[in-house]
Amino acid sequence: MERLQIPGRGEVRSRLGKAVLHEHVLLTPKGGELPLDGLRAEVSIGVDQFWLYLYSDSHSPELVGFPHRRDPATAAGETVLIFTEEQVRGFEMAINAAAAAEKRFRAGLPAHLAQAEDELAEARKDTDAVKAAEQNRTHVMDSSRNDPRLAKARAGLTAARNRWEDKTGRLPPK
User: What does the alpha-carbon distance between residue 105 and residue 109 come to, in Å, rounded to a whole number?
Assistant: First the structure.
């Protein structure tokens, strides 16, 4: 029930560069965490980058850049990830689809919570099997504890261990 109330990030659905799309949130390359509920993504093409605009009901808009060509000012040995329009638009679609799924999830949440609470209440009522198992366990433990064969077996074990020690000079492992 707690997973319904506080679902966390959820499973990873997609990633592009350092942006990671989870089931319930989007992690931005700058370390931000945007809830998918109410999130909308749009792509714009710049001179050297694709820009992903992220509009959220609960946060100010964010802008994430994905280079589509190498910046001439970049150092010669520095590695730069280059992204295609297809990759960025695919990521945009994945974000928008995940946001729509999150909206449906949130809309159905009250019904799911009510159902989970009903199932939990029903499971708590049905404790007959647990009580029977506890009684059986208690009976078995009492029977074992009071069994005269146990004392005889322990005495035999102690005698055998002592014989072992007499022959080898040390006790066997327990």
Answer: 6
Q: CA 50, CA 66: separation in Å to the nearest integer?
A: 5
Nearest Cα residue to 99 out of 146, 156, 54, 51: 54
Tens of pLDDT, residues 73-111: 666 666 667 899 999 999 999 999 999 999 998 888 888
Structure pTM?
Answer: 0.62
The single-letter DSSP state of residue 102 is H
Give helix 128-146 / helix 148-168 axis angle, nearest 10°: 60
Residue given tokens 């040995």 in the structure block? 77
CA distances 125 to 21, 33, 83, 114, 118, Å, are: 40, 41, 57, 17, 11
What is d(CA 69, CA 114) in angstroms, rounded to the nearest whole number?
Answer: 52
The residues, any chain, with a CB within 8 Å of residue 25's CB and separated by 6 or more, are 9, 10, 33, 34, 35, 36
Q: Which two tokens stand for residue 150?
A: 């146990």
Taking the C-alpha atoms of residue 88 and residue 66, their distance in angstroms, rounded to an integer, is 8
8 A C-beta contact, residue 67 and residue 83: yes
